[in-house]
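Students often ask why inverse folding is considered easier than folding. One informal answer: many sequences map to the same fold, so there is more than one right answer. In these notes we will look at a single instance of the problem. The structure comes first.
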């Protein structure tokens, strides 16, 4: 009886340690726990702002060296793109870069967001309510500036996003209008 109790206690401790370990990966695959090169996770608009600040640093160097203002393209019509473009404009202005409302005579800064569906198995992640299955999605955010047909800045970064947030990074598809013909007689 004592051996059975000890075995149950050891199993409970092992389970608690496993759950605690899963909780610390912040929704990223377990393989990223030991790898510092794994993508970061975009979880809030504050993360979008930090991403825009980092990119604005690179753009500011390019813009100042060429002594030209920047026009920030709008990306696609996803929720992320609308917010990110605004954060990017704000960050550039705060860094003293002239941000133009028109692309003429300005460096054209474009960005694109690619949502990547996972091809990996799900990890078990734990939160305060217990364990659940989690499949991390990835997005690739690419920022570029072209001049005379050549890239003078090109930067692609990969991030994890939660499955429930994936739609924020996908373009909004307008509803299709179907014409109705005929009469109701």
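Output (designed amino acids):
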């Amino acid at each position: 009886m004592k051996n059975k109790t000890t075995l149950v206690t050891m199993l409970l401790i092992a389970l608690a340690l496993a759950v605690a370990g899963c909780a610390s990966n912040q929704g990223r695959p377990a393989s990223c726990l030991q790898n510092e090169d794994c993508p970061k996770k975009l979880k809030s608009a504050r993360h979008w702002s930090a991403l825009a600040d980092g990119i604005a640093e690179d753009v500011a160097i390019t813009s100042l060296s060429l002594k030209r203002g920047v026009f920030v393209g709008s990306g696609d019509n996803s929720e992320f793109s609308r917010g990110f473009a605004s954060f990017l404009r704000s960050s550039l202005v705060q860094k003293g870069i002239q941000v133009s409302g028109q692309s003429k005579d300005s460096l054209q800064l474009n960005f694109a967001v690619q949502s990547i569906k996972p091809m990996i198995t799900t990890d078990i992640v734990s939160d305060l309510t217990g364990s659940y299955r989690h499949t991390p999605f990835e997005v690739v955010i690419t920022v570029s500036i072209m001049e005379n047909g050549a890239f003078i800045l090109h930067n692609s970064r990969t991030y994890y996003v939660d499955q429930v947030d994936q739609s924020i990074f996908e373009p909004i598809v307008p509803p299709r209008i179907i014409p109705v013909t005929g009469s109701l007689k």
